[in-house]
Amino acid sequence: MKVLASDKIAEVGLKMLQNAGFEAEMKTGLSEEELVKIIPQYDALIVRSETKVTPKIIEAGKNLKIIGRAGVGVDNVDLPTATKRGVIVVNSPEGNTVAAAEHTWAMLLSMARSIPQAHSKLKSGVWDKKSFKGVEVLNKTLGVVGLGKIGRRVASYALGMGMNVIVSDPFVTEDYAKGLGVKLVDLETIYQDSDFITFHIPKTKDTLGMINAQAIAKMKKGVRLVNVARGGIINEADLYEALKSGKVAAAALDVFEKEPCDKSPLFELDNIVVTPHLGASTVEAQVNVAVDVVEQIIEVLKGGAARSAVNIPSMKPELLAPVRPYMSVAEKLGKFAAQIIKGAISRVVVEYSGEVAEHNVSPLTTILLKGLLEPSMDVKVNFVNAPLIAKERGIEIVESKSKEAKDFASLILVKVKTEKEEREVGGTVFEKLGDRLVAIDGYRVDANPQGYLLIISNIDKPGMIGKVGTFLGQKNINIASMDVGRIKVGEKAVMVINVDASVPDEVLLGLTKIEGISAATVVKI
Known about the structure:
The protein has 525 residues and is of the alpha/beta class. It folds into 3 domains: 2-93 and 284-311, NAD(P)-binding Rossmann-like Domain (Rossmann fold, 3-Layer(aba) Sandwich), CATH 3.40.50; 97-274, Rossmann fold, CATH 3.40.50.720; 312-409, CATH 3.30.1330.90. It is 34% helix and 25% strand. The chain contains 17 helices and 22 strands. It has helices spanning 11-19, 32-38, 55-60, 79-84, 97-113, 115-123, 149-160, 174-180, 187-193, 213-217, 236-245, 283-301, 317-340, 362-373, 386-392, 464-474, 505-512; strands at 2-5, 23-26, 44-47, 66-69, 88-91, 141-145, 164-168, 183-184, 196-199, 223-227, 248-253, 272-274, 345-354, 396-402, 410-418, 422-430, 434-440, 443-447, 452-459, 479-486, 492-499, 517-524. It has a 7-stranded parallel beta sheet, with helices on both faces. Strands 14-13-15-16-17-18 form a 6-stranded mixed beta sheet, with helices on one face. α1 (11-19) packs parallel to α12, α5 (97-113) packs across α7 and α13 runs parallel beside α14 (362-373). The chain is elongated and about 105 Å long.
């Protein structure tokens, strides 16, 4: 398999890929057209912030399985297209945490003491102490917008500097904030009470341009703003006017609306500190993010799961861990149901009962859908796009949980409905036997859902097992194991037979001609 790094990454990342048996190349400065031409030969793509991974590039990547963003933000990757194409997108949410937090503080202190301006003037031969009177941060109020990993670290630094810290984050509780020694408030309070405000939020449709003239008007006169997060959060035209008027005393920007940015009205002002997107530019951070992303790419290309996938939220490690033992049987149930059902699927009901129902089962439903849709789709189906494909095709997905055990410590029951029929299969995991198929259309069975399974519907009467065994033997089909499920003696029953090879159509037809047998189907898992 081949991996392309289209932006510069630490050499250790390329060496890790090569040591893992992959062919890894680094080709930087490629245009969209150049990338479109070469991307079909690669299984994985690694980028930083320079490469814009457009829909055109993703569509051209016929072998592309994963895109790794060596950093936090993924706004340079078209996530909807990647998801639709079944391409996993991963990032490195922690690799540059320290670098970004420290750069935030470097920018904040440089802004507070006009260090870049004084430095530049002194180097030009002017000793000027009067023009650069700064402000102290001690006892000042810092407003932190976004209390993620970077925001938390910035807040802890502020506490160490003797600042009062207030934070705004819709996903944080008061108790959690209190435990960090900070006060949780709303965004309006941040604007009104902060002497300094720093932003640590992603760029989304809701945050784009959120710091505009209206927001600035609500802030203290003389507030100081820092943005080492994402360009576009601050409306630069409105910031320019606020800096000129003195409403905003100073600003420090590491990111911009359009990058690279080498010309801006902001650069004409004396009360602004700017750097060219250096938040993650430390030796340690570049190694960390490269290693983090490469480890995930290696894991995914070898058939594993990514720990920091941004377009498959149900696959987060903390969600996967408790349900991992059931992942295999869930996918097998989906594959089994897909091969026994007739017609276009309109509804899927997944019922979880027993111990498995005590956890977040969304990863299992996603994996089950992948197994269910894969056999009938003309596009690649994987854990990324399975829910999207189901939604696009109007398939209703219903998920239910009951902690009450039903005959088994844990049970996954899948009911699939089409315009023609409704079928039901159930499975569980036994400690020593592993994955087991335990129910088919209400019949209790016990079979290994692996390899080729011959499913026979028949009347429960003496001699049926012998007839089937003899017939298969005559056709040179070897039986590995057999199980029979029935509800009432003498009525309908189902046979589940593990065989060593596929069963030809003519053999299946021959089985249905045996008296008492109404249907015969072969399933491959």
